[in-house]
């Protein structure tokens, strides 16, 4: 029992130590976590931050979206910078939009958070997008994906048809060559038998 309690206390202690560490490749100074200009993508964002973070700098990276719930665990957050990222305003931006809409205007987190794509929404502030506009961009993306899939399927079918045609041509040519070879062999055998028969007759006549 004592060992179990000791192990549990040690586990929470180490877990607390990890959560207070500055995430790589960011720089931490006091309660500020500076992850700006680190060429971070959405998949390379740190997953653990110091518990007392009050200022989070994520500007000038390569972020196209934020994972769902990413900013919800910052209980003490008072300032966040998200500008200078190529935000893609499709279904993946719904969480960021919802989070920005919940923030007080004094936080100013929405400033500079502009859509980079699709072209129809480029330059628009994410926080001011309507849900319908985002859903329309999602449908556009799905249509592009469906069209790409159909083109790939068409190319695949064409290639398979070409291979099948080439195989049929090869089989027909092989069959033709086989028939010609059999015909030549039969003619050779017939000619050989005729020659042997003629030699036999000549040999018989010469001994009479």
Write the layout of secondary structure elements.
Blueprint: H1 2-19, E1 27-29, E2 32-34, E3 55-57, E4 79-81, E5 87-88, H2 94-102, E6 115-117, H3 131-206
Parallel strand pairs: 2-3, 3-4, 5-6
Antiparallel strand pairs: 1-2
Spell the H/E element sequence.
Answer: HEEEEEHEH
Q: Indicate the overall shape.
A: rod-shaped
Question: What is the terminal-to-terminal distance?
Answer: 123 Å
User: What is the helix fraction of residues, given as a range?
Assistant: 40-55%
Strand order in the largest sheet: 1-2-3-4
The DSSP helix count reads 3
Q: Strand content of the residues, in percent? A: 5-15%
Summed over residues and divided by their number, the pLDDT gives a mean of: 80
Number of strands: 6
Largest sheet: 4 strands, mixed
Q: Helix/strand-derived class?
A: alpha/beta
Low-confidence stretches: 5-18
Supply Rg.
38 Å
């Amino acid at each position: 029992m004592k060992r179990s309690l000791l192990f549990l206390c040690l586990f929470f202690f180490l877990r607390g130590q990890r959560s207070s560490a500055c995430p790589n490749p960011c720089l931490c100074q006091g309660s500020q976590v500076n992850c700006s200009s680190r060429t971070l993508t959405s998949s390379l964002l740190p997953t653990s931050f110091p518990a007392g973070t009050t200022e989070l700098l994520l500007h000038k990276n390569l972020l196209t979206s934020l994972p769902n719930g990413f900013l919800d665990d910052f209980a003490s957050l008072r300032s966040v910078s998200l500008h200078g990222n190529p935000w893609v305003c499709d279904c993946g931006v719904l969480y960021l939009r919802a989070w920005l809409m919940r923030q007080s205007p004094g936080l100013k987190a929405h400033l500079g958070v502009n859509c980079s794509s699709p072209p129809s929404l480029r330059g628009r502030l994410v926080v001011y997008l309507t849900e319908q506009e985002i859903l329309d961009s999602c449908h556009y993306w799905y249509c592009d994906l469906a069209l790409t899939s159909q083109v790939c399927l068409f190319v695949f079918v064409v290639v398979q048809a070409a291979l099948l045609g080439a195989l049929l041509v090869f089989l027909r040519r092989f069959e033709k060559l086989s028939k010609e070879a059999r015909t030549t062999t039969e003619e050779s055998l017939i000619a050989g038998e005729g020659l042997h028969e003629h030699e036999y007759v000549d040999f018989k006549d010469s001994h009479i």
